[in-house]
Structure formats: structure tokens, C-alpha cells
């Protein structure tokens, strides 16, 4: 599987963000042979100030953001996973959309809202249903997580128990003391303990940590960005997972199961 991770810096203007995304994606062509392109959490619209009401800017699942992804998926002959705020009758969902050239394939609504480090995401957004979401992309079972979900190992394990061999983690990982260390460590831990690939597309810039990355099932960094906008590409071989699980059968050796 060939994956592209798009690190960007979203604003609180959705039309500007769509233009910026289209501009960055122009660097990709069908000849890249991409199976999956991942954009960060909040790619449609930044979180903004802690008191910014996100309901008025949230979009339906057939709105302009998903329309852009569908057009780009058609052009690149690939599948996108990206973060948006999904319109509801009340507080929006923080939603990942899975989009190919035919349109919306699946959604994952963030389960663990970021009520931590003095921030309260739950004041502005609704949590999703507590159920793992795994989708097949290019013949690989892909589990979906968003940002703060990464801090909950039981979430990743539930995805793996549902068949995931690759975890995709779009994020807007807020910068701060210890935060880059936590980001790298948790991405690596989720890969090692589950013997899976982990790919994470993050928001960059001054407010967020950046450092989008792809991690292999041994916990080695395949590719990693800094904090500026960037597009990374990585090839993730399915037999890497099979080999890691043969050498390190920790999943099979579990004696405590939920």
C-alpha cells in the first residue's frame, strides 16, 4: 500500500482551507499510484479559539469539503481519509470521512473528546458511538482513530481485534511541554503493542505539533515531517505485519482479554 500524508495548517475559513488543500494536492498525480491519502483532523476548518462555536461552520456529509475530496479522489484514483466537523441538529461531530472517487464510503465520529490539558472539546462537539470503525482500503483492513484517541490503548486494541492491520490517526495535536514526546511515543507504542502499521497526518504550524509520521510494526519511523506543511509518502507492505506477528506473537499470547 502506498500512502501519502498531507500535513497542513488549517484556518478558520473553510473556503480558504479548501483552496489550500487543492493547492497542496496539486503536487500529487495519478502516476504516484497512491492507495490512500490522509489529511489531518480539522482539515475542513480549524478548531479556532476555545470559545468559537463550531456549529455554524459544520458541514453535511455531502457538503463542499467532501465534494472536494471526491473530486481529488477521482483525479488521483485513490481514497482519502480526512477530518471535518459534521453538521447535526445540536453540537457537531468531529468526524473522519473516508472518500473515494464515488463519494463518501464511511465515517468515524471521534469517541474520546479532548477534555485535557485545560481544554474542553466536549463543550463544542459531540462524542461518537463507542464502536470501532474498520474499513478495507486497497485490500488492507484500516482502523480509524482521531488525535486524543491515541492516548487510549484499548481503542487501538479494539480496532486490531476487529481486524485492522493499519491504524490511521489524523490529528491536531496541540503543541506544548512534553507534547511532541508524547506524540512520538504513543504512535510508536500503538504500532509495537499491536504489531501494525500506524500512519498519522497532523496539523502543523505554531499551534500544533506537526510531525506527521508513518511507523512500521516494529515501532521504527518510516518517514516523519517537521512542523511545516508537507506531503510525505510511504510504502507499507502487508507482509511486514505478518512477519512481525510471526516473530513477536504477542497478540496470540494474550491471557487477559476484554
From TrEMBL:
<comment type="similarity">
    <text>Belongs to the carbon-nitrogen hydrolase superfamily. NIT1/NIT2 family.</text>
</comment>
<dbReference type="InterPro" id="IPR036526">
    <property type="entry name" value="C-N_Hydrolase_sf"/>
</dbReference>
<dbReference type="InterPro" id="IPR001110">
    <property type="entry name" value="UPF0012_CS"/>
</dbReference>
<dbReference type="Pfam" id="PF00795">
    <property type="entry name" value="CN_hydrolase"/>
</dbReference>
<feature type="domain" description="CN hydrolase">
    <location>
        <begin position="1"/>
        <end position="241"/>
    </location>
</feature>
<dbReference type="InterPro" id="IPR003010">
    <property type="entry name" value="C-N_Hydrolase"/>
</dbReference>
<protein>
    <submittedName>
        <fullName>Amidohydrolase</fullName>
    </submittedName>
</protein>
Amino acid at each position: 500500500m502506498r500512502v501519502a500524508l498531507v500535513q497542513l495548517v488549517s484556518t478558520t475559513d473553510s473556503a480558504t482551507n479548501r483552496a489550500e488543500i487543492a493547492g497542496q494536492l496539486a503536487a500529487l498525480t495519478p502516476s504516484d499510484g497512491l492507495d490512500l491519502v490522509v489529511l489531518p483532523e480539522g482539515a475542513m476548518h480549524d478548531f479556532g479559539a476555545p470559545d468559537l462555536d463550531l456549529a455554524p461552520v459544520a458541514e453535511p456529509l455531502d457538503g463542499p469539503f467532501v465534494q472536494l475530496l471526491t473530486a481529488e479522489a477521482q483525479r488521483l484514483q485513490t481514497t482519502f481519509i480526512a477530518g471535518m466537523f459534521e453538521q447535526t441538529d445540536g453540537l457537531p461531530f468531529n468526524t473522519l470521512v473516508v472518500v473515494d472517487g464515488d463519494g463518501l464510503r464511511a465515517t468515524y465520529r471521534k469517541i474520546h473528546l479532548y477534555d485535557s490539558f485545560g481544554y474542553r472539546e466536549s463543550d463544542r462537539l459531540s462524542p461518537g458511538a463507542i464502536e470501532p470503525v474498520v474499513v478495507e482500503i486497497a485490500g488492507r483492513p484500516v482502523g480509524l482513530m482521531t488525535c486524543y484517541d491515541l492516548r487510549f490503548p484499548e481503542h487501538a486494541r479494539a480496532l486490531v481485534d476487529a481486524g485492522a492491520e493499519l491504524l490511521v490517526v489524523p490529528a491536531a495535536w496541540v503543541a506544548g511541554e512534553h507534547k511532541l514526546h508524547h506524540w512520538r511515543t504513543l504512535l510508536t507504542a500503538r504500532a509495537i503493542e499491536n504489531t501494525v502499521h500506524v500512519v498519522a497526518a497532523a496539523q502543523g504550524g505554531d499551534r500544533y505539533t506537526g510531525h506527521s509520521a508513518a511507523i512500521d510494526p516494529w515501532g521504527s519511523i518510516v518517514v516523519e515531517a517537521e512542523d511545516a506543511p508537507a506531503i510525505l509518502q510511504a510504502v507499507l507492505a502487508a507482509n511486514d505485519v505478518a512477519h512481525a506477528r510471526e516473530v513477536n506473537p504477542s497478540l496470540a499470547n494474550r491471557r487477559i482479554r476484554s
